[in-house]
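User: Fold this; tokens only.

Assistant: Input:
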Amino acid sequence: MKIMEHERIIYIYEYLSCGTNESQGVTIKDIQRYLSENGNMKSVSALTIRRDIERLQLAGNDITATAGAHNTFYYKMKNNGFTFNEIRFIVDSISINKFLSNSKKQRLIKKFEGICSEKEVRQLISRISLNVQYSPSLDLLENLDKVHTIISEKRKINFEYGKLNVNKNMNYYKKRREMIPVKVVYFNERFYLKCVNEENLQLRVYRIDRMSKITAGDKTKLKVDIPKPDGVVIDMFEPESFEYVIFRVKKFLLDDMLEHFGNYACVRNDDEYLDSVIVRVKIGISQSFYRWVMKYGSNMEIVSPEYIRNKFCEELDKVLEIYRK
């Protein structure tokens, strides 16, 4: 579910839990008014709100709809639906989100405090700290909302893209892109937008927290489908190819390998070295792949294919050349 949807559903949940009971209901128009006045969410369609209410119902919330005059339905919530442990988990998740500013976090957490007792509110004080080097410079929620809207409207997307300079400032580059946005992907604690160039159908990937001045372009009739990766991917960028690679890995790294490779990996004991295992996995080959192998140093060895092993040796020679000068 998209971040903006999470925030909207929290507002609807808050309104239903605090503003309704078994005898008092609210209409779709009431909910639209509440979203506009309290969440700065204008023009949310009745269909979207009904779908959000259905999601809350599927999550176990006791929400009923009673027909009134002029075919108007009144929605009521009998209980808040969340256990305290569930609320605490959500609040902790918000606390460790590195893309939200402190003020945004506090505003979201306040919504959950409204459905807790005073004792529970004291227990919600997060003891989780987040080690980040840079505070968010853009409103990620706003960027995500714009991107998802453009994708749903089947339009091209234009934006400025930022990169940090030596002064640790973000420089945004103006460039006419008009890419076709296809999907948003969450990978390694970052949100990325996968786009396709309409002229050459080449895939492009952009970090959404680095995008600024996002605008919608013309509608596109081109139907674009990005296939699922045919193996393990090291980063968000498309590999040159996918190959079956055999590694010799120290046993203390086995947990790390299995968590990283998942069901793609086949593992057996190494008959030659008792302190190692043999891991066979289909993985995307790119420069990122070789950098990833390097971080394990002498604890990981590429056994085959030979051409990948030789290419890795070439990369190591380049590193050694720098240090031997």
